[in-house]
Design goal:
With 421 residues, the chain is an alpha/beta fold. It is built from 15 helices and 16 strands.
């Protein structure tokens, strides 16, 4: 009798739970051995990876995937190099598991502290980019978590080929094969099953479009680490250095258009707008960025700036489009960000220490920056080595989620025959 999707996913979940108990007690050396062996396996399997990826690309072209999606899907030599390097970098990171902090003696004589431990089983649901398979597997493995990876159907052959390399690494390190499992079926019912197995899965991390994340957040019976939108702002304060402001606002928008940490709205204090906006507009126009602005912006920059609507302030474009608004105070800038932002990443450009401190304190986002581009909101740039995703939630993890975000803490108590009286 053919196994149902629910039975298949239940089997994966049960195997992952068993593997998680072995991983929780695995040594750092053993986990690193698996990561290094997987890196060697990837290097040796380049031809196999490219051949599998070409199957996915051919199917994607036949199915009418757009150029951007095909680009994300491609396993080029450079992408394979970065996957191998990523495994080696994660192997080199400090192992958070087992670290004990804040041990202190209590009046009773016992010692109380906290120990860092894995979450257990992490389910990751993602689209298109097969390199996420390596990023997710490596971070989960190093942090002592078993993981179930459900990639997009458009990358199924690539993900299977990558999974074989990971399996080789686990085998060489004598870790359970179920430590990392790639879902083999493309049936969408697998996602529904994965997010509804709290007995086997401890947390879900969705990586993909807003529709996917909204669906998982709505239907999951397992805690979710996620962000929905990346509506990021740069505010150029009245006390900004104009040259810094131009450089930062240019980079935050044009270094790449699609990432979630790209600026979507530029806020400018009206007292400095005439100095910074015309040169910025010239840069944006040269780089093909469509500008949409408030009445003051349009009066300053000309008729080719489209009128910004209420919807523009609440839109993540992921495209060469930028909304610009003039404000008359820091208060107005903070109010705009807290009203329209997505609590992802927001920056102020200013030489005024008090304004900078107020911005850091009052802007309610997972990353808040002073005199730096929003494009720095990234696990690698934050020294995490890599990231499993970015969280705009306020519980458990916030901002780029690296190894520590895939762990929890438990209290540990040391005594010597102590009893409570």
């Amino acid at each position: 009798m053919t196994e149902s999707v629910l039975d298949y996913m239940t089997r994966l979940g049960r195997s992952a739970r068993e593997a998680s108990r072995v991983l929780a007690r695995a040594s750092t050396a053993q986990k690193n051995r698996a990561l290094q062996a997987a890196a060697r396996a990837l290097d040796a399997a380049r031809d196999e990876l490219v051949a599998a990826n070409e199957q996915d690309l051919a199917q994607g072209r036949a199915n009418g995937l757009d150029a951007a999606m095909l680009d994300r899907l491609a396993l080029t030599p450079k992408v394979i190099d970065s996957m191998i390097e990523g495994l080696r970098q994660v192997a080199a990171l400090p192992d958070p598991i087992g670290a004990i902090r804040d041990m202190r003696y209590m009046p009773s004589g016992i010692q109380v502290g906290k120990m860092r431990v894995p979450l257990g089983v992490v389910g990751i649901i993602y689209e298109s980019r097969p390199n996420v398979t390596i990023d997710a597997a490596s971070l989960c493995l190093k942090s002592g978590n078993a993981t179930i990876l459900r990639g997009g159907s458009e990358a199924i052959h690539s993900n299977r080929a990558i999974a074989r390399c990971i399996a080789q690494g686990l085998l060489e390190a004598e870790l359970p094969a179920a430590s990392v499992q790639v879902v083999e079926t493309t049936d969408r019912a697998a996602v529904g099953a994965l997010i509804a197995m709290p007995e086997y899965v401890d947390v879900i991390v969705p990586r993909g479009g807003k529709g996917l994340i909204e669906r998982i957040s709505r239907d999951a019976r397992v805690p979710v680490i996620k962000h929905l939108d990346g509506i990021c702002h740069v505010y150029i304060d009245v006390a900004a250095d104009p040259q810094k402001a131009i450089r930062i606002a240019d980079n935050a928008k044009t270094q790449r258009f699609a990432p979630c940490n790209t600026m979507e709205t530029l806020l400018v204090h009206q007292a400095i707008a005439a100095e910074v906006l015309p040169p910025l507009a010239a840069i944006y126009r040269d780089k093909g960025v469509e500008l949409r602005g408030c009445a003051g912006t349009r009066a300053l920059l000309g008729a080719d700036v489209l009128e910004a609507t209420e919807q523009d302030w609440a839109t993540e474009y992921n495209a060469p489009i930028l909304s610009i608004r003039l404000v008359d105070s820091l208060d107005a800038a903070i109010e705009h960000i807290n009203r329209y932002g997505s609590q992802h990443t927001d920056a102020i450009v200013t030489e005024n220490f008090t304004d900078a401190r107020r911005f850091l304190t009052e802007v309610d986002s997972s990353s808040v920056m002073v005199n730096a581009s929003t494009r720095f909101a990234d696990g690698f740039e934050y020294g995490l080595g890599a990231e499993i995703g970015i969280s705009t939630d306020k519980l458990h993890a916030r901002g780029p989620v690296g190894l520590e975000g895939l762990t929890s803490e438990k209290y540990v108590v040391l005594g010597d025959g102590h009893i409570r009286t």
